[in-house]
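Re: that backbone. Tokens:
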């Protein structure tokens, strides 16, 4: 049985598709695939395959290629359809459009033309990897792909060294060992990290350890498949008591003692109880 069509309002629909497992598609994504006027995809063959798996007919609707090499030529056609009041869906090859994938300029053009835009959310490798990593998920920073050259990569890593959040990178299997080696050098070989490989696919794997251990492992044998690297936040440096007090006083000017202590404790990586006791003392004064 074919997937049913539905009435779809005009506008741009940014639709997430599975990372590997075809059944990770959402019901809403299937509704949109079946019903929009125009489909656009980073890789039209992958989208056709996904639609075939789920028995979504293309019919005589246009399926337009939109990728980094033809975006400037394809965008005006899609904008014309949107401005004529049609519904247009955009999907990247896998995961969420715009996340290290094309779609940003299309989205900006649609916003500038005051076309209604909406996202049909779904898989993205960064978040799937974070949930599987076992590293703190309360704060994270997605940094996409690091530069190719070792020098630029080390500079980018050093800019992230003090960020009090789990760092998430996309990486190619060929470069993984060198990236981990540079990360160990810049961030410290003892820092915890996790490599997630082939998420939602047959050879899915999670490998945790220190940056030193992981870089040795992957320099020796380059893995195959798609990779996400996650790096734990660094151990908090001894916080300067004056800087800590200033942050607490600032937070107390617009927050309760409890909220101020929680916020400052997270920022400085210190125990919440310690921040709370200091905040109480400052609040009394
Ligand atoms: N838009 C996608 C998303 O939402 O995750 C990312 C596209 S980016 C061009 C491709 C990179 O995402 C891969 O090189 C890899 O780092 C990561 N990735 C995609 N699928 C993955 C998977 N199944 N397992 C691990 N990493 C994956």
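Recovered sequence:
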């Amino acid at each position: 049985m074919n997937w049913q069509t539905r009435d779809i309002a005009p506008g741009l629909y940014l639709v997430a598709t599975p990372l590997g497992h075809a059944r990770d598609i959402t019901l809403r994504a299937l509704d949109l695939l079946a019903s929009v006027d125009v489909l656009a995809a980073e890789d039209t063959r992958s989208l056709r395959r996904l639609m075939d798996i789920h028995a979504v007919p293309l019919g005589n609707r246009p399926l337009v290629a939109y990728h980094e090499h033809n975006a400037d030529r394809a965008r005006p056609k899609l904008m014309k359809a949107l401005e004529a009041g049609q519904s247009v869906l955009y999907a990247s090859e896998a995961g969420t459009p715009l996340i290290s994938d094309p779609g940003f300029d299309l989205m900006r053009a649609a916003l500038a033309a005051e076309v209604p835009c909406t996202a049909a959310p779904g898989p993205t490798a960064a978040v799937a990897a974070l949930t599987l990593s076992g590293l703190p998920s309360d704060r994270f920073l997605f940094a996409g792909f690091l530069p190719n050259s070792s020098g630029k990569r080390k500079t980018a890593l050093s800019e992230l060294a003090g960020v009090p959040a789990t760092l998430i990178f996309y990486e190619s299997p060929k470069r993984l060992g060198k990236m981990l080696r540079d990360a160990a050098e810049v961030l410290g070989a003892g820092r915890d990290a996790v490599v997630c490989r082939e998420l939602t696919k047959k050879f899915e794997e999670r490998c945790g350890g220190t940056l030193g251990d992981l870089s040795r492992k992957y320099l020796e044998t380059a893995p195959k498949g798609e990779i996400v690297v996650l790096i734990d936040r660094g151990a908090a440096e001894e916080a300067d008591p004056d800087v800590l007090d200033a942050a607490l006083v600032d937070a107390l000017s617009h927050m309760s003692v409890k909220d101020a202590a929680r916020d400052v404790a997270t920022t400085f990586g210190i125990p919440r109880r310690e921040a709370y006791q200091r905040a109480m003392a400052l609040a009394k004064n």
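The longest strand covers residues 140-145. Strands lie at 11-15, 38-41, 63-65, 87-91, 117-120, 140-145, 166-171, 192-197, 205-210, 227-231.
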